[in-house]
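Example for tutorial group B:
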């Protein structure tokens, strides 16, 4: 065990290690082996025991562990947990609830005592059981690695020992241990693997299957570590994080092999998911489909997440509802005829200013992106400032000297306006005919020419200064 511990660099001299000790054979063996190791390498050891509040004999387990610590002058911390209540609140199994509460207790004690490492007593058989459990559930490469020797501050020094070796070590030294009655039942899936599947494989198929699986797990763990590195590099090349959302370059993403693409999407989704366990293969495949073809599409994901294809990128993040803001203002002919024209305030602080100008007073059509002229005599009804509606269209030159109507949706797609912006771009419109998509194209039909007698000038202004929002030629 010591060579395994050192090979994985689990402990450094003078480390403070918190041990999770239940009183069972595995954790008691861990305690005695680390006490032995502390004889050759200076260590500080503390023990945490978690009472799950399930078994009536749990108090005896706690007393036994406390006695072991007292005899060896080790700090002992008892943590009581309401596993049943937690499982009901979090809607999870008691097995899962117990695991979460144990690690919470270990981490909290380590933080409070300033410990460097947390040692838990998983053994080689536990690793094999976990591998099978994940295999049966259709897990990926990470799940097939089973339990890792080191995961951040958590170490598992007994992962190289089988259960029989652990019990033989304790028996030889006449060290007693407690037996958890819940481990003898078939109530939990892992227990059924432990009691029925692995023994059958060992006796009827391959002797030494647990050690064989341990070697395979080591190889898979090395492969997984390499794949994690490659996935991280891929993320650096094609992912940008903006306001808690991940923007993925479609072109760069497509250059990576499928295995890296899937891993990267899974990694990003796990970062957005509260539990990290809600994303399945079917969701990853749905997001992958967004990288094919062109245009704008979206996919709903669990836990209030979404993936949106926006032309050259796919955006992964929490759902944003593209609801229309309550903008809708009529600019009548009476208002335009008055002195000073008309001003319409926009959400976000800007404004549109409407001014009527005699055609003979102007010599050159402005090329400014935020000042537009329209032939006022071609406008027969009131002009509206609003957001887009079903049936909206804009007039476009067809390149053959004619003007053609094009739906506003098709126009916005052609102009590569992101889907999430389309609902909130102010429009100047007469009925369903859009005169101007503010900041962008105007309708060919309403353009001024040599016969224009009256010009409707519309300027997009900053709300507080009245200055041009931008002074740049188109």
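The residue assignment follows.
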């Amino acid at each position: 065990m010591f060579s395994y511990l050192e090979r994985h660099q689990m402990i450094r001299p003078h480390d403070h290690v918190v041990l999770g000790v239940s009183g069972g054979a595995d954790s008691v063996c861990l305690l005695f082996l680390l006490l032995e190791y502390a004889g050759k390498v200076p260590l500080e050891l503390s023990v945490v025991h978690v009472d799950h509040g399930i078994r009536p004999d749990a108090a005896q387990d706690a007393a036994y562990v406390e006695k072991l610590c007292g005899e060896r002058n080790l700090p002992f911390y008892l943590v009581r947990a309401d596993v049943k209540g937690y499982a009901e609140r979090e809607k999870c199994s008691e097995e899962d609830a117990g695991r979460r509460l144990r690690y919470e207790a270990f981490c909290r004690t380590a933080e409070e005592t300033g410990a460097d490492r947390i040692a838990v007593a998983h053994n080689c058989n536990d690793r094999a059981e976990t591998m099978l459990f994940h295999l049966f559930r259709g897990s990926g490469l990470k799940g097939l690695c089973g339990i890792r020797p080191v995961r951040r501050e958590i170490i598992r020094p007994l992962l190289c020992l089988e259960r029989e070796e652990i019990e033989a070590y304790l028996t030889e030294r006449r060290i007693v241990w407690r037996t958890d009655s819940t481990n003898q039942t078939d109530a939990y899936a892992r227990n059924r693997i432990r009691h029925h599947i692995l023994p059958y494989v060992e006796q009827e198929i391959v002797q030494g299957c647990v050690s064989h699986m341990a070697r395979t797990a080591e190889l898979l763990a090395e492969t997984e570590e390499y794949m994690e590195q490659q996935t991280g590099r891929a993320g650096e090349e094609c992912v940008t994080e903006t306001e808690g959302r991940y923007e993925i370059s479609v072109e760069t993403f497509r250059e990576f092999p499928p295995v890296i693409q899937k891993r990267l999407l899974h990694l990003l989704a796990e970062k957005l998911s509260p539990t990290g366990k809600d994303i399945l293969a079917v969701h990853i495949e749905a997001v992958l489909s967004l990288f094919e073809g062109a245009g704008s599409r979206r996919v709903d994901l669990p836990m209030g997440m979404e993936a949106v294809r926006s032309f050259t990128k796919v955006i992964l993040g929490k759902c944003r509802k593209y609801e229309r803001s309550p903008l809708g203002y009529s600019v009548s002919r009476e208002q335009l005829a008055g002195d000073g024209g008309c001003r319409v305030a926009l959400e976000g602080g800007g404004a549109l200013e409407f001014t009527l100008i005699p055609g003979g007073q102007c010599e050159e059509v402005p090329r400014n992106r935020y000042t537009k002229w329209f032939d006022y005599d071609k406008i027969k009804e009131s002009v509206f400032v609003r957001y887009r509606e079903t049936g909206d269209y804009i007039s476009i030159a067809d390149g053959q000297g004619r003007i053609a109507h094009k739906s506003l949706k098709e126009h916005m797609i052609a102009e590569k306006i992101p889907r999430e912006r389309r609902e909130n771009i102010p429009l100047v419109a007469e009925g369903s005919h859009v005169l101007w998509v503010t900041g962008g194209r105007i309708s060919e039909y309403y353009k001024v020419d040599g016969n224009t007698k009256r010009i409707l000038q519309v300027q997009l202004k900053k709300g507080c200064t009245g200055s041009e929002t931008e002074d740049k030629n188109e």
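The mean pLDDT is 85. Compare this with the pattern of hydrophobic and polar residues in the output above.
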